[in-house]
Amino acid sequence: MIWLSYRQTRLQLSIGLVTLAVVAAGLALTGPHLAELAKTEKFLQQASDGVANSFLYVATILLTYGLPALIGGFWGAPLVAREIESGTHRLAWTQGVSRTRWLAFRLGIGATAVLAVSGLLTLAITWWAGPMDKAMPIEGPTGVFSFYRMSPFLFGVRGVAPIGWALFAFALGVVVGMLARRTLVALGVTMALLVVLQVCVPMFVRAHLAAPVDAVVPITLENLRGLEGRPDGAGEVTLETFHISGAGPADWILDDETVDRNGLIPASLPSYVSGCMPEPGLNPDPASSVQRAKQACIDRLSAEGYQQHIIYHPESRFWALQWREAGLLAGGALLLSGFAFWRIRQDP
Fold first, then answer.
1. Which of 324, 24, 17, 331 is nearest to 161 (CA)?
2. How do residues 262-287 score in pLDDT, each as one tens digit?
3. 208-244 b/e with 16+ CB inside 10 Å = b?
4. How far is residue 109 from each of residues 2, 104, 113, 289, 291, measured CA to CA in Å?
5. In terms of pTM, does the model score above 0.85?
6. What is the pLDDT of residues 283-301, one digit of tens each?
7. CB of 306 within 8 A of CB of 259?
């Protein structure tokens, strides 16, 4: 039974191993040089100047995001759907192999292969991108390296979360294949569902995997970074909120709003606040008349009760959120597998 299961999945496994080998070779050739380069000044600028580094950085992001859809569509969906479509599953059932045992072997071999390929691939990518991810909070976004690892865009392609996505995608593909009973239909539906989930989870689920930090901080010349407004229709701009650096540069900011003394978001800010903004890129003399005027503006703002309300996940929670998302997805994969065992027993 193990040999039969292997033979029926060896094409997908071979493609996965070849892809893994090619990516691993590229990472192994460039990774040690990046680690050495990370010890120098302006590391990100130097790294972004290398075509191979930039290409691999973007390619690995695209590959990791595409991995769940590929696994779900080409490994999971055909696993049972192809057998049902051709009728070969009944041959196995009439030769002394129970339905549960047949499905257990198919799922076990497939899940092991998915775990091995996705685990080795994503952990290798996380290792390779480590120097860039560590340098980003220090040097700031540079060139193609424009996202912190806690950002919703990059979080899903680092750490252990992609492994959870791969296992969930495989189980989802199997279940959709059992229900659709047609390989191509199951492939298309599985891939579409995974794309939707990969958009919805970062938007609506990930931020709630742990309680975020909720803080109200004073607005100062030192932490003030921007002022946001909207056109009022009469050629003027209504000032609505400040933006400050109240959290670390690599933290995941969920909300950043100016509030009044009652903790409410005002419809607009007083017109005088435009004079509070510090000069960009300058370190002015605090004793200068301009700087004293700006400080007076900030003091007036504080006296009137305006503060900044920020909600965020600190970068230090990266691995905690990673394991929780991976655990959530692994739990989803187990539930889908349980449904698959129930469904196979209902098949006439």
1. 324
2. 888 888 888 888 787 776 655 666 66
3. ebeebeeeeeebbeeebeebeeeeeeeeeeebbbbbb
4. 8, 8, 6, 74, 68
5. yes
6. 666 667 777 888 888 888 8
7. yes
